[in-house]
Amino acid sequence: MRIGHGYDVHRLTEGRRLVLGGVEIPFEKGLLGHSDADVLVHAVMDALLGAAGLGDIGGLFPDTDLAFAGISSLTLLDQVMDRLGAAGFRVGNVDATLLAQRPKLAPHIPQMRAKLAAHLGVDPARVNVKATTEEGLGFTGTGEGIAAHSVCLLEEV
What we know:
Number of helices: 5
Largest sheet: 5 strands, mixed
Number of strands: 7
Structural class: alpha+beta
Strand order of the largest sheet: 4-1-7-5-6
Order of helices and strands: EEEEHHHEHEHE
Helix content: 25-40%
Radius of gyration: 15 Å
Shape: globular
């Protein structure tokens, strides 16, 4: 078994959609980034890649490559899963935490879990997503950005 940790952060800005866990969330701002800037999926991918010893998303999907401009992070997750399979790993479980003052994310978490589970090839019971505020502290607390942490367990096939 292998354990991995992932972290990502993106700035909130006007004129962008807010996508978290592959779910579009109604909000006046979205996350700034080269892809759809889905911090949750990015943190999950980095946890998976780290556990497998396969680098990170910046190395695999650089923001200098126009092929990834505006791409869905779930599409990138599918590519990560192909690499994991080729390396002889399958997902045991994923646990992730979103850090955001606003918007309220709890109503969207079941859909995030379902989307992640489908792309990870596991039962939704093996994917956990939580959300927390930071009591107005730091860049997430002041609404400047959203961050995500993720841990995973990989099993050798």
